[in-house]
Design a protein that fits this description.
The protein is of the alpha/beta class and about 290 residues long. It is built from 11 helices and 12 strands. The chain is about 35% helix and about 20% strand.
Length: about 290
């Protein structure tokens, strides 16, 4: 705020001077009498010009692989505002919340995401319980067990997914659940994931890598949303330049939460915010330029 002190014989004279110099939007902050009249302190907020729209926003969005219909919805106002209006965003609450279960196609980065979230909780003074229902991939549980031992958190590999409710009964503290990779075109596997999520009373987050075809990503998100996924964690943004697939996946109704921006297990997630997405969508720089 721009401040200025005006000294005049009367308050009326001071108001006239204030309007002439600062305009009708000026605020009177204080007044006091002096030997020669009055002293009035006034202030006015500087006018910030509205940001100009990017000269080639449609071209930028198309370069990232967004469908034309989605590009059309992102043409009004500053891009962060358009994203905020068109999509759902939320912080990923872990402490004091229901279990978080990560699902997704093979190789999406579910196990690494679980480790990153467990690390975040440990650094915040929380002690999470990490569960795995991945009995299919060779060495999957051994890898996760080794990483959780480094963190000093409890790890349980569940052989029978039907037992997950019993394992969680009576427990307290944050719970993270890793699952086996599942094809979005496998109705049996998707049904099993939905059943696990229901038994665990868990929030289900789809872990999906960036850089994929937008329509393929949207089909994948649609399938996992039908199995109960309501959150989206995008991974591998450090090795992807085009992120249209992330928005296409979120467009089915998923809430965007986190973005994997590096290979660092301890510091590899960043909030998936409208501002973050705007910076990526309006640039064609290498993805490493956006890492922490």
């Amino acid at each position: 705020m721009r401040l200025k002190i005006f000294q005049s014989a009367t308050v009326a004279d001071a108001m006239q001077d204030i309007r002439a110099e600062l305009g009708v939007e000026a605020l009177i902050l204080s007044t006091r009498r002096t030997k020669s009249g009055v002293e009035v302190t006034a202030g006015v907020e500087p006018i910030t010009p509205a940001p100009a729209l990017e000269p080639d926003r449609p071209g930028q969005l198309a370069w990232h692989g967004l469908p034309a219909s989605m590009c059309a919805k992102l043409q009004t106002g500053p891009l962060p505002f358009a994203l905020q209006v068109g999509f759902r965003f939320a912080r990923l609450d872990l402490a004091g919340a229901p279990p978080l279960m990560c699902v997704g196609p093979p190789g999406a980065g579910k196990t690494l995401t679980i480790v990153r979230l467990a690390t975040r909780l440990v650094l915040a003074g929380q002690t999470p319980l990490v569960l795995s229902t991945d009995g299919c991939r060779a060495g999957a549980n051994a890898q996760l067990q080794a990483l959780t031992e480094i963190l000093g958190v409890k790890f349980i590999a569940i052989d029978k997914p039907t037992d997950i409710g019993q394992v969680l009964s009576g427990g307290s503290g944050p719970v993270l659940i890793d699952t086996a990779g599942c094809s979005p075109y496998d109705p049996v596997g998707l049904g099993e994931l939905a059943a696990i999520g229901k038994r665990a009373a868990a929030r289900i987050a789809l872990v999906l890598p960036a850089g994929q075809d937008a329509m393929e990503s949207q089909d994948t998100a649609t399938a996992f949303a039908a199995a109960g996924a309501s959150l989206l964690i995008a991974t591998k943004l450090d090795i992807a330049r085009r992120i249209g697939g992330v928005l296409a996946a979120a467009a089915v109704g998923l809430t965007m939460t986190e973005a994997g921006i590096s290979a660092n297990a301890a510091d590899g997630l960043s909030p998936l915010s409208p501002q973050f997405l705007s910076e990526r969508l309006l640039s064609r720089r290498s993805p490493g330029a956006f890492s922490k």
